[in-house]
TrEMBL record:
Reactions this protein catalyses: ATP + protein L-histidine = ADP + protein N-phospho-L-histidine
Listed name of the protein: histidine kinase
Segments forming domain Histidine kinase: 317-524
Domain Response regulatory: 548-661
Organism phylogeny: Bacteria, Pseudomonadati, Myxococcota, Myxococcia, Myxococcales
Region (Disordered): 657-685
Keyword Phosphoprotein: yes
Gene3D superfamilies: 1.10.287.130, 3.40.50.2300, Histidine kinase-like ATPase, C-terminal domain, PAS domain
Amino acid sequence: MLTVSATNPIQKLAQVLEKERERVARLWAKRLREELYEIEVPGKDLRAPLRQLLDELVRLLHDRGEDALRLWPEVVRSHGAFRYDQRFEPEDLAREFKALGSVLMRVYARCEGGLLPPEVADLINELVGEASASAQASYSRVLRTEAVRFREAAVMESVLYHMDVGILLAELDESVSFATQPVSRLLGVPVRSVVGARALTSLAPVLSQVNAHHPAGEPFRVADMPFMRALKESRPVRGVMMEVERPGGGAASLEMSATPIWEEGGELAGVIQTFTDRTEAAQKTRELSTAQDELRRLQGQLLQRTRAQSLGQLASGAAHALNNFLNVVRLRVTLLRREFKPEHLDALDRTVGQIGDLVSRLQEFNVQRTEEHLADVVLDTVVREALELMRGELERGDSPLEVELHLGEPGNVRADAGFLRELVVTLLLAARDRMKQPGKLTLSTRKEGNAELSLRIQDAGPPFPVEALSRMFDPLTREAGAPQAALQLAVVKDQVRRWGGELTVENVEGGAGGAFVVRLPRVREGHEEEPPASSRMEGPRRFQQTRRVLVVDDDLDNARMMAEVLGEEGYDVQLAQSAEVALQLWERRRYDAALLDAVMPDISGWELARELRQRTPQALLAIVTGMDVRGQNRSTLALVDAVFRKPIDVGALDEFLSQSGAPGQEASPPEEAPGESVGPGAQGQ
């Protein structure tokens, strides 16, 4: 037993404690919170029980003198049972009283100018040691009593302690009545302060301390907890993910599920929520997602590179062969200028025929290369697949693009799904290449009337120059850097045409960018009826002998040569370099026939044929083209009476224009034969 000296350490300690009681309580609570990662919870003051112990200690030191050392442990005894109820661990009690001794010595020294007499230090150590031993004994006694009384519960709690899954029990008033130790281990902070309190007030500080958030980055609120939703909706809530940052270091991905508990009468009794560590699985998922994005990017690059190489090799081979033929033509023309000989003309005619054969073989190569497997394809699905294939390529680099998707679920188109996906990829790359700065790329689909669907790919690049709109799909453009892109776009445009659609390019109103627009025929649903026969266009007619002919071609040299040849055959020929001029001439004068170039900058020859057929159903109409018409749908082919391939056979053209018949007598529309042109007088492939 400590004896009282002249300095009387008991009275001195009592004086310091009476003066600095609040400071000691505050520092003690702070040190304890640091030791235990305790959370400051509203309505659950950690300082209150500590202040009560200090009040008793000051009273005993004042009133009972040296008997305080004997009576103080009895006062502290109930504190051990109190901490057991709060789910403190035995080592937590040891830390608590160790913290008290450290704080008492620090405060005493501060009040005495930095001096701590040995006898005061001994007194503090003895007080703290006796109190800690008494609290530990009380804790153990309660623990033994509980173990005897609730042995099964103790065994169950021991099992739950060692499980990898944390369990939390919530009551109807949204308070947490039970939480296993793995919950604290998974979160990285003790949740004992949450037990017995309303979740909205007690859980918020815990979530804030661990920086809880959703996988997408939004803060995780108490209301997002599965047990809160299960209480509100009276149904199970599964697979809610939460990311946390543990105070001790390291992040974790937790999966939470909640299951309602029902009384025998069907009343809701509470909710059980589980916590499962999915950190490793989440990390692997992120790694797989990153690898998949990289794979999609590489696939897109490979697709782009392979297409460009194939087109380049085709163009190079065709250019080599054509240059050889043109060299022969130029040499023969040189000889003709020096001396006229019929054999020179015959040789020129043979060379032109060989060039025509080469073009036919190129077109045949295209038909073989693009062997299709047509099916009813959901347009929106193909657009999503193409975008996923290219998303990594579009969103990385120095100028990442923001992709905005507006899909209107317009329906199905008749196409090859693989070719359609590549088509969308090509247009995405073309739109990307126009945007040198970060911006938005917008994809939208919608239904246009009852017959067509449209896909619009709009970029935020500079507006297209007006003169460039007509050259956009010209595969032989001579602009620097443009041939490869133009060749790819020409292939895309031809593919769309083969499916009975059209590809156009336009500027956005207000100069906010440009857009590629794909229009394709919509596949009718099984319950949709075909339009009545009266609304469908009648087939081409046969007529009296043709005299007045309108030649429509945006290439002036071709148009003039055609007019000169037909003029020498006795026809009255008028020229038009655009569809707009052709329609104006058609309104002013009656024409018996029209020869229409298939590819023109404003509208196609097929669309012009549709307009002319509506105005003059009995007119004789023919398409003149250097392109392959296989793949055009039957309704488009039915717009004209014949298709002539360039270089044109003048004899066959004269035979076609000279056909006659009784006025009003009808002929069947041209049928599409595999591998051949259509209509009377058509040229073979």
